Amino acid sequence: MRRIRSFMVSRHRAAHIERMEEDAVNFAKIYALDLQRLLVCVDSHDLFRDVLPQKLIRIAKVWNLDVTPVEKFSPLLLHGKVAAEYIKRRFGINDKEILDAVAYHTSGIPTESPIVMAMFILDSTESGRDFEGIEELREISAKSLKEGFEAIVKNKLIYAVTNNLLVLPETVETWNYIRGVKS
Ligand SMILES: [Fe+2]
Ligand SMILES: [Fe+2]
After folding, report:
1. Ligand 2 center to 134 CA (angstroms)
2. What would the CATH number be for the domain defined by 2-178?
3. Pick from 38, 114, 129, 149: CA 20 to 30 A from residue 98's CA?
4. Ligand 1 centre from 79 Cα, in Å?
5. Predicted confidence (pLDDT) per residue in 116-156, tens digit
6. pLDDT at 2 exceeding the cut of 80
């Protein structure tokens, strides 16, 4: 997977992934997570992040993935789902937690899975990220996976609305799940 990564992602993206790998080692220790599974998520999650939007739409069609109206509007949002489908097809990975962690690393998903939560947190808080409130998010995440996950979901929603950006339906669902709505 690392070899594939070297020709699929930009340098800048590769650096993001490498920083996440370092944090993943730490997380695996603190939260007793399976480091190998977490690293599969980290190494694959942004494989399609530097692919052109129209190409992502085409790949999603060929692989029969559901494309939501929001993803049609902003195809880059598909990069997680496409990456999850890719590792399933290319490497035969059928571990649902890994696939969900990859597919929903940007939006979040209603979950109790430590791997899914850890992946979501790592993507937002790796040491190269810099935005208002990030230190607090890092601190919360170092104490509790669940609370870190919740704080980041909240932060993303506030950020999106404040900046007139799209709110992803999966993020809203995640928020409602955190607030007690069970499907
Ligand atoms: Fe991503
Ligand atoms: Fe990422």
Report:
1. 16
2. 1.10.3210.10
3. 129
4. 7
5. 999 999 999 999 999 999 999 999 999 999 999 999 999 99
6. no
> What CA–CA distance (Å, rounded) separates 108 from 150?
10
Q: List residues, by chain if needed, whose CB lies under 5 Å from ion ligand 1.
A: 46, 49
Q: Read out DSSP for 87-148?
A: HHHHH----HHHHHHHHTTTT--S---HHHHHHHHHHHHSTT---TTHHHHHHHHHH-HHHH
Token pair of 65, please? 């993935």
Centre of ligand 1 to C-alpha 103, Å, is 9
Q: Which run of H or of E encompasses 47? A: none
Q: List Cβ neighbours of 167 (8 Å cut-off, separation of 6 or more).
A: 157, 160, 161
Angstrom distance (rounded) from CA 176 to CA 183: 10
Cα three-residue angle 4-5-6, rounded to 5 degrees: 90
Angle at 34 between CA 28 and CA 35, to 5 degrees: 60
CA dihedral 5, 159, 121, 83 (to 10 degrees): -30
Which residues, 6+ apart, have CB-to-CB distance to 74 below 8 Å? 53, 166
How much distance in Å is there from the Cα of 181 to the middle of ligand 1? 26
Domain ranges of the chain: 2-178
What pLDDT is attached to residue 8?
87
